[in-house]
Amino acid sequence: MATDHRTVADTIADQNPRSFEARWRKQVRFLADLSLWRHPVARVLATVIAALLLAVVISVPLSLGGQLVFAAGCFAAALLLNRTPGRLTTLAMIVLSITASSRYMYWRVTDTVDFHNWVDAIFGFGLLLAELYAFLVLLIGYFQTAWPLQRRPVPLPDDLDVWPSVDVFIPTYNEPLEVVKQTVFSAMQMDWPADRLNVYVLDDGRRDDFRDFCAELGVGYLRRGDNAHAKAGNINAALAVTDSDYVAIFDCDHIPTRSFLQVCMGWFLRDDKLAMLQTPHHFFSPDPFEKNLETFHAMPNEGELFYGIVQDGNDLWNAAFFCGSCAVIKRAPLMEIGGVAIETVTEDAHTALKLSRRGYNTAYLELPQAAGLATESLSAHVGQRIRWARGMAQIMRIDNPLLGPGLKWGQRLCYFNAMLHFFYGLPRLVFLTAPLAYLFFGAHVFQATAAMITAYALPHLAHASITNSRIQGRFRYSFWNEVYESVLAWYIMRPVLLAVINPKLGKFNVTAKGGVVEHSYFDWSIARPYLILLIVNALGFFVGIWRLTVAVDTVVLTTIIINMVWTAYNIILTSASLAVASETRQIRSTPRVTVALPAALRFADGRTLMCETDDFSQNGVGLRVQTPMPVEPGTRVEVALFRSDEEATFPAVITFSGAERLGLQFEELTLQQQAALSRLTFARADVWLEFWGNRQHDRPLTSLKSVMVIGLRGIGQVMGNLLNILRGRRVALGERSSSS
């Protein structure tokens, strides 16, 4: 499937044909377009020669001085390339990174594992296996993300008669009706022929108030007699009693925009083999990391890398995943594979894998066309990730993408890396404790001098950091991946390993949405592993200080310093993980979306005040006014919202009055008014675009500083909570002694 891979930098360079960059690009394009490369023999010969040259560069032995000169030259080249825009430059940086990392791993395997005792061997081979895992993930990650497809919507035919019918499924189990309402309202108002749009609420909770709500709105309501196979079973039961050509699926808290179907459906009409198209999962509420660390909208969240870069890279290899929501699936291929997969608890990815095995295409559009609620607490977030990790391990065990028919090698690697990713728990714990082997037990996990370790390891880490920052910088900041993994490592390690042994273990757990956190608190239960790791690393660091005072020579001194630097970095990661466990108060069950929309305020005496929204939710709106007007809280008003030539008015009461800002709470809205509110706010086609990938590009040193600041904050929160506990116990003891 062809697409235009030219970037803005290419266009700018072409507009300045005399610049060095333009001349360089012209030469590169001339060489790349030579007819010679279309001959299969030339391609094979070029590949063999390149592989041989790379093998020589990776394996040639160098002295310490030679390795330092080679590493410095390569990294200088990477820094220069990083200042040059363009995808070819990114590919060149990837080649340099792979060269540095492969050279390091070759040296590790061939020169550093001659262990002299069992203590060195246990710790040394454990670290080596963890590094091999990280190296494999790095290589396949480059393969996935080097050239994102950047697919764009395809216009639909002007003839509406050829637009297909669509069933919209909204599965729900135990979520409150207030959470589900907005999704239903917006789904009903998608821009699609009314006679070919059918909205169904799939209620596995079998609740009468849901049934009555759907009846009043005139949307479909389906319930079944049991909850077999959880969400997958719920959808399959609905497939059995519906018949539209396509199915659009939304989690009950994911609110679609009006443009969703018009943006997505064109690709199905162009490509007869397309079975599934996925769009990003965007969230208008902060996840626990963003909420507890106060980074919402300031930096990318944990999931944005997947939807911003990885899925787009998968799309190049025809391996885009179904993610359970915000997607359209063609009914015929879905029924051909027996419906949504029920063998694992990640039914979505497994369904996409089955479709790919049958030879169908999948697609991804990197345009947020829906938005939902993130998990409210760290414990709920951890539980959700445990389910994802267990499910991916189950797929690897029972339907491994590297084996079996129907997949091309690009698809196999993309699916395999998605599953391999969730095995990071044990390697991450190894990295968080590896330097302690030397500091506590004197174990030499590297059979090499500290200078040689630095000369080989530092280029590997530096190249990987700068290259990934270039590729991922819009959607993931440097060093934050280590924080995310450190928080989850302990919790996903056990279920993943158990799922490999017995894939039938574990069950589907529903992630709660729409709750509140009434009081700030420190989650000691969740934080226990990070606290232990922090204490152990801190002890190791102090042991290192003591070892420095008794070091007998420069070699030992350098080794101690390297391990102490590594331990200090681990202290930063574990202390930042502790900060995430400090749950902040969240009293709003309906989070507000910060966006400026035109509005007007109308008073009972006939006055009208033009203004714009500061934020909105389904329960209220914040207004920013240019002309201050004294308004008493409790005043009843009408607020008008606008979209193009459409207007709707809603009764409200003033709850807050400031110099340039007013807070309003909607009074009892009819279902028709609630639907109109959704149409003018959550369902707007443009409402989520400004939040997507528009932050400042990653700066590694700035990101490291932010992680360090968060780490100091985490330590301070732990100390503060411990002091509060001690004070509480002292007061309790005093009361007990006075009463006795």
UniProtKB/TrEMBL annotation:
<keyword id="KW-0997">Cell inner membrane</keyword>
<comment type="function">
    <text>Catalytic subunit of cellulose synthase. It polymerizes uridine 5'-diphosphate glucose to cellulose.</text>
</comment>
<feature type="transmembrane region" description="Helical">
    <location>
        <begin position="118"/>
        <end position="143"/>
    </location>
</feature>
<feature type="transmembrane region" description="Helical">
    <location>
        <begin position="437"/>
        <end position="458"/>
    </location>
</feature>
<feature type="transmembrane region" description="Helical">
    <location>
        <begin position="41"/>
        <end position="58"/>
    </location>
</feature>
<dbReference type="GO" id="GO:0030244">
    <property type="term" value="P:cellulose biosynthetic process"/>
</dbReference>
<dbReference type="InterPro" id="IPR003919">
    <property type="entry name" value="Cell_synth_A"/>
</dbReference>
<feature type="transmembrane region" description="Helical">
    <location>
        <begin position="555"/>
        <end position="581"/>
    </location>
</feature>
<keyword id="KW-0808">Transferase</keyword>
<dbReference type="InterPro" id="IPR005150">
    <property type="entry name" value="Cellulose_synth"/>
</dbReference>
<feature type="domain" description="PilZ">
    <location>
        <begin position="586"/>
        <end position="682"/>
    </location>
</feature>
<keyword id="KW-0973">c-di-GMP</keyword>
<dbReference type="InterPro" id="IPR029044">
    <property type="entry name" value="Nucleotide-diphossugar_trans"/>
</dbReference>
<comment type="pathway">
    <text>Glycan metabolism; bacterial cellulose biosynthesis.</text>
</comment>
<feature type="domain" description="Glycosyltransferase 2-like">
    <location>
        <begin position="168"/>
        <end position="337"/>
    </location>
</feature>
<dbReference type="Pfam" id="PF03552">
    <property type="entry name" value="Cellulose_synt"/>
</dbReference>
<dbReference type="InterPro" id="IPR001173">
    <property type="entry name" value="Glyco_trans_2-like"/>
</dbReference>
<keyword id="KW-0472">Membrane</keyword>
<feature type="transmembrane region" description="Helical">
    <location>
        <begin position="88"/>
        <end position="106"/>
    </location>
</feature>
<dbReference type="GO" id="GO:0016760">
    <property type="term" value="F:cellulose synthase (UDP-forming) activity"/>
</dbReference>
<feature type="transmembrane region" description="Helical">
    <location>
        <begin position="530"/>
        <end position="549"/>
    </location>
</feature>
<keyword id="KW-0812">Transmembrane</keyword>
<protein>
    <recommendedName>
        <fullName>Cellulose synthase catalytic subunit [UDP-forming]</fullName>
        <ecNumber>2.4.1.12</ecNumber>
    </recommendedName>
</protein>
<keyword id="KW-0135">Cellulose biosynthesis</keyword>
<feature type="transmembrane region" description="Helical">
    <location>
        <begin position="64"/>
        <end position="81"/>
    </location>
</feature>
<keyword id="KW-0328">Glycosyltransferase</keyword>
<dbReference type="GO" id="GO:0035438">
    <property type="term" value="F:cyclic-di-GMP binding"/>
</dbReference>
<dbReference type="Pfam" id="PF07238">
    <property type="entry name" value="PilZ"/>
</dbReference>
<dbReference type="InterPro" id="IPR009875">
    <property type="entry name" value="PilZ_domain"/>
</dbReference>
<dbReference type="GO" id="GO:0006011">
    <property type="term" value="P:UDP-alpha-D-glucose metabolic process"/>
</dbReference>
<keyword id="KW-1133">Transmembrane helix</keyword>
<keyword id="KW-1003">Cell membrane</keyword>
<feature type="transmembrane region" description="Helical">
    <location>
        <begin position="413"/>
        <end position="431"/>
    </location>
</feature>
<dbReference type="Pfam" id="PF00535">
    <property type="entry name" value="Glycos_transf_2"/>
</dbReference>
<dbReference type="GO" id="GO:0005886">
    <property type="term" value="C:plasma membrane"/>
</dbReference>
<dbReference type="InterPro" id="IPR050321">
    <property type="entry name" value="Glycosyltr_2/OpgH_subfam"/>
</dbReference>
